[in-house]
């Protein structure tokens, strides 16, 4: 344990550890924000326009909205809006933590031309400037975080907007209390630390995350966190779709299969046919790869399950970064790409 703590001190040069420890507070704080006056009427569709960590917020919200509302919501990771988003009945939530995301700024301009209803979320930047100048409802969140570490602010400010519009239900404080308890279980000094144990199993392996559609937002977050924090590959797929194609991949190349570690994330409440698919698929894969990790999320409802898994995945990616002996905050290649794009 002492050696591992020394490794954290050595490689966590920008103190991501403290950001992970403070995640529950960040979520509670984000949910406490005051939503600006919303002049919208008769919203029929919602589009969350963002990239990276900002878009993940939309993914999670969309998962929850699909279970609780007849109003459809979508995540837009592009420079353009879909053609059907053509009037004020479509709400565009422009999310960019920095406020300077190139794709989101382009979509924001297009949404204005289409006369969409708009609300902006950022910590400042060009988006705040545009929102102030054009009198667009704007929710400002605290600056100073890597965008992927600001998920609590990004998600819960989005959630509060959806709650204000009557699309989702109010949250209880017990969610944030549970978050604090889950985080305690994943701290470096915690015994029987599930996050560290999984990271150790994933070390020098290729993670394959399998779950059902309702947790696609979770494994998308896991994949992107392992990419940015751990500087490692991970692949994802969902049931039942993977049974119609990827299940056939478990033959070749043999060297790749040997390096893979499948992680099955199984919802507590799921379609019985999908549960059967989980079990049959595991039996098939076990003949090729004898090691599989099975996870069942904690929580009494969907949002609790989602955030239990998000917290767990963030800690896994942090520990895997330390095992890979890299700084989890550093994103040199992304910064180089932005520099070459002129951003």
Structure characterization notes:
The structure is a single chain. With 343 residues, the chain is an alpha/beta fold. The protein has two domains: 33-171, Rossmann fold; 193-323, Rossmann fold, CATH 3.40.50. It contains 14 helices and nine strands. The protein has helices at 2-11, 16-21, 23-31, 52-68, 102-113, 125-133, 151-164, 174-186, 194-202, 216-228, 254-259, 272-286, 302-323, 332-341, and strands at residues 45-49, 73-76, 90-95, 117-122, 138-140, 206-212, 234-239, 260-265, 293-295. A five-stranded parallel beta sheet has the order 2-1-3-4-5, with helices on both faces. It has a four-stranded parallel beta sheet with strand order 7-6-8-9.
Distance from N terminus to C terminus (CA atoms, Å) equals 42 Å
Total domain count: 2
What would you call the quaternary organization? single chain
The beta-strand count equals 9
Which class of secondary structure composition applies to the elements? alpha/beta
Order of helices and strands: HHHEHEEHEHEHHHEHEHEHEHH
Query: What is the radius of gyration?
Result: 20 Å
Assess the beta-strand content as a share of residues. 5-15%
The top-level CATH class of the largest domain is Alpha Beta
Sheet with most strands:
5 strands, parallel
Query: What is the CATH topology descriptor of the largest domain?
Result: Rossmann fold
Supply the CATH architecture of the largest domain.
3-Layer(aba) Sandwich
């Amino acid at each position: 344990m002492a050696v591992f703590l020394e490794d954290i001190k050595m490689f966590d040069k920008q103190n991501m550890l403290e950001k992970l420890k403070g995640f529950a507070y960040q979520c509670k704080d984000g949910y406490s924000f005051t939503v600006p006056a919303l002049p919208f009427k008769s919203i029929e569709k919602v589009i969350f326009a963002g990239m990276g960590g900002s878009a993940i917020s939309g993914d999670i919200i969309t998962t929850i909205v699909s279970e609780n509302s007849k109003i459809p919501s979508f995540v837009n990771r592009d420079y353009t809006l879909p053609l059907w988003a053509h009037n004020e009945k479509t709400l565009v939530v422009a999310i960019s933590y920095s406020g300077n995301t190139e794709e989101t700024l382009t979509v924001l301009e297009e949404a204005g031309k289409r006369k969409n209803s708009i609300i902006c979320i950022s910590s400042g930047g060009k988006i705040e400037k545009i929102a102030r100048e054009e009198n667009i409802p704007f929710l400002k969140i605290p600056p100073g975080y890597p965008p992927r570490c600001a998920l609590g602010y990004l998600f819960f400010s989005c959630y509060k907007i959806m709650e204000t519009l009557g699309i989702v239900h109010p949250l209880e404080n017990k969610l944030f209390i549970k978050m604090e308890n889950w985080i305690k279980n994943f701290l470096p000094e915690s015994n029987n630390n599930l996050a560290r144990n999984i990271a150790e199993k994933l070390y020098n392996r290729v993670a394959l995350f399998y779950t059902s559609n309702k947790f696609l937002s979770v494994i998308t977050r896991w994949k992107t966190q392992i990419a940015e924090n751990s500087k490692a590959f991970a692949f994802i797929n969902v049931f039942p779709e993977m049974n119609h194609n990827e299940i056939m991949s478990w033959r070749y190349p043999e060297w790749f299969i040997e390096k893979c570690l499948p992680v099955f994330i199984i919802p507590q409440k799921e379609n019985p046919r999908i549960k059967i698919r989980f079990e049959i698929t595991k039996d098939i894969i076990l003949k090729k790869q004898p090691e599989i990790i099975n996870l069942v999320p904690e929580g009494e409802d969907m949002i609790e399950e989602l955030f239990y898994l998000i917290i767990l995945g963030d800690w896994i990616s942090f520990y895997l970064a330390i095992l890979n002996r890299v700084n989890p905050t550093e994103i040199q290649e992304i910064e180089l790409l932005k520099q070459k794009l002129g951003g």
